[in-house]
Amino acid sequence: MAEIATEPLISIRDLEVHFRLAGGLFSRSRRVVKAVDGVTLDIFKGETLGLVGESGCGKTTLGRAVLRLTEPTSGQILFRGDDLAMLSRRAMRERRRQLQVIFQDPYASLNPRMTVSQIIGEPLETFNLARGETKRQRIQDLMEMVGLSRRFLKRYPHEFSGGQRQRIGIARALAVDPDFIVADEPISALDVSIQSQIMNLLDRLRREKNLTYLFISHDLRAIRHFSDRVAVMYLGKIVELAPAKTVYTNPLMPYTKALISAVPVPDPRIEASRRRIVLEGDVPSPINPPPGCRFHTRCPYAVDACRDVEPQLVQIKPGHFAACIRISPEQPDIERVSPGAAPGLEYQR
Amino acid sequence: MNTNGNLLSVKDLRTYFETEDGTVKAVDGVSFELKRGQTLGIVGESGSGKSVANLSLMRLIPDPPGKIVSGSITFDGRDILKLAPAEVRRIRGKRIAMIFQDPMTSLNPFMRVSKQMMEVTRLHLGHTKRQAREHAIKMLEHVGIPDASERVDSYPHEFSGGMRQRVMIAMALSCKPELLIADEPTTALDVTIQAQILELIRTLKAETGASVILITHDLGVVAGMTDHIIVMYAGRVFEQATTDELFERPGNPYTRGLLRSVPDPTAEQGKLYQIPGLPPDLAHLPAGCPFAPRCERAEDICRRDFPPFVQLTSSHYSLCHFAGEVYAETRGQDG
Q1: pLDDT at position A287
Q2: Could you tell me the pTM of the whole model?
Q3: In this predicted complex, what is the ipTM?
Q4: Which chain B residues touch A270 with a CB distance below 8 Å?
Q5: Chain A, 230-269: which have a CB under 8 Å from a chain B CB?
Q6: B272 vs A: CB within 8 A
Q7: pLDDT attached to residue A28
Q8: Residue A92, exposed/middle/buried by CB under 10 A (0-12, 13-18, 19+)?
Q9: Which of A28, A39, A292, B13 could form a cystine bridge with B71, CB 3.0-4.6 A?
């Protein structure tokens, strides 16, 4: 991580995104989904921050809220001296030149009635960046950059495979020369052999264009490969944050340990010998998340206090943050903490 | 019933589809065998023919446009392709059961789970209403549905994704099938739920002694679950081996490329190996080897002649002009 600046490009502070649910026809229910519930996170210039979690954990909502594609309920998103959350819609539109997004579904995120050239050229027009011959040249350069032949200029999205469509989406995001890209599950819908192509492309573009990524995925193998640091999310909260390698080799949180142990490894010898932590049950509903630590209902290490105390994300080791009252900097290994003890309780206060 | 022999033997299966674009040879000469109690993995990318092969086994190919044009599918001594439709229906759901990626493929959204599960055992096992209901509850308990005696009367949408997958597995297993075909059973699920479902399939298989065919694109999933693997590409079997051998010493450039393009969480980062190009258009396959345009070691012969299916060991085959060389190379790398 030596080459990454320690200056944050984006600082997220206490971000919350709550959705009010419509009640039944005659009910006056005030049920609220706390999709993102108090996230504080720095994304450093030039890094890829991986955001991982199971479906419903709020990772996509967090990514959208950072770009204000979904309106945050409260909190700050600091970028180049502005709080994006406070900008007017008009000012935010201007800012989008620096902040782009790549979506999961390359089938749904491209307008089927526009040619590739129109799709990639649209942001150039919106931001008044290029016209006429300059624009044409720029579109061709972008296509070449993402590995699409210029013969495809006049074709429509349906004429392309999933991987090629994702390349079109990437070219569109890059058209405005952004600083920051939220890549939301950019490879999940693709075949294995195409996934590695797209990951290598994103990686090359990051180096060439000095990009900063928020890479959202449920695929822990891709996250590990692609990210400098990894944030693990569970029911609206970041529960662990550390360099990618550390998250894999020395996870602190019981949830992260279970997640990593559940990833199938393409090696029969490892598969035969590894110890797998199989979690009981499903992710609880974010409408009524469990009190205290949200993971306590599935956690094999939970003690009574976990039901009452909401753990804070604190630094346990240098650069390694976790939200668990059962560990502390002095006793970071949960398996060695004496049964029933919660050394983090004191530390967190 | 011969308990040592093959439960299933597929020979030279060819399933073609007639389209406006020409004949699509979705499955083109696939052969494999499956012994009782064993698990076979079928690995491939989209369009490789793995799902069509699986639907062909159950005679579920829509005709037209599809047609099984040749081959035999011998299940417990009888060729499924020669049976009358009524006989196939008696086998399907009873002796051969299927689970899919999307549980709603096999669950009726308008019917209570109890009713759907009872229908199956009343038809195939001749259960009375009461027996069928008790059996359904027992099966749901077995797959880990809490409060099964109450949940049995729920509708499918009232279950979460992972639980719905369990309901489908309970239904598929309710007649104690001899063969379970699982087509991408965990692809839509989160990893922690995937681990639960794979564990469940493993346990149930050990208990009932059923054979399993596991169809997936995820090499990690087959590594821990299967005895044998076949790798499909463009409707063909490209490689066939025991699971250990396939991962240790792949004898086909395509398999080797696939294995190398999966990020290894234990390894350092760096550029990921990538297979160039796109999977072929099945209606317009290139001459010679269908993988040749993407293959890093292709030579003139690969672009001209269809490759032979080379036997490397007693149980290891590879469809490649250079199978022997590729196999020797990987052996060298590994040792």
Answers
A1: 81
A2: 0.86
A3: 0.80
A4: 223
A5: 244, 248, 258-269
A6: yes
A7: 60
A8: middle
A9: B13
